[in-house]
Structure formats: C-alpha cells, structure tokens
C-alpha cells in the first residue's frame, strides 16, 4: 500500500508524463535508443519547438536526461528500468482492457 508521500508524488509525476500522447511517443522512442532532438522531431512528425517543450517536461519530471555529445545534446531515459516499466505498464493495461479509451486522451497538460 502506498502511504509515503514521496511514493505517491513519484507515481503522479510518471502519470502526468504519460498523460500526453507525444510524451508517450517520446518515452517509447527513447526506450529503443538515445536520440537527438532533431531526429526525434522528424521521427514523431512534430515541430522542434513543440518537441522541446515536451522534452523539457520529461526532463523536469526526471524521466529523461541530456547527455552532451560534442556540440550536440542527446536525450535518453534517466534509468533503463523506465523502459521496462513502460513495457510492463502497457502489457498490464492491454491485458485488463483492450477496448477502452481515455476521455482526456487529447489533453496537453504538462508536469
């Protein structure tokens, strides 16, 4: 049972990050491999300013980190266990209900 405020805050932070489809796509892309913002913007088909806002949110949530690479900055998951958590969460939700959608799926709130 979750009773410690920090446990609840951590889960809420993860939930807020997952509440946006673009941030979900970013996390899933970074689960596959670290990437540069320009490559992520192209892969996701979104503008770089919009991508930057979502990456900043994920960074502020503590889910992604930046890694300097010469004059460029690469993004990656803050911990490899986040990739496993995403896989496990997706599998668990699919196993429970496959025909449900969230009424707030189009929401663009940030952390």
User: What is the number of strand segments?
Assistant: 2
| Arithmetic mean pLDDT | 87
Task: Provide the spatial order of strands within the biggest beta sheet.
Answer: 1-2
Give the CA-based shape.
globular
How many discrete domains? 1
CATH superfamily: Winged helix-like DNA-binding domain superfamily/Winged helix DNA-binding domain
Class based on secondary structure composition and strand pairing: mainly alpha
Number of helices: 5
CATH topology name, in short, is Arc Repressor Mutant, subunit A
Give the ordered list of helices and strands.
HHHHEEH
Any idea of the CATH class? Mainly Alpha
Whole-angstrom Rg: 15 Å
Measure the end-to-end span. 24 Å
CATH architecture descriptor name: Orthogonal Bundle
- What is the helical fraction, as a range of percent? 55-70%
Protein name: HTH-type transcriptional regulator CmtR
Pfam family, one: HTH_5
Domain HTH arsR-type: 3-97
Function: Metal-responsive transcriptional repressor for the cmt operon. Binding of cadmium or lead causes the repressor to dissociate from the DNA.
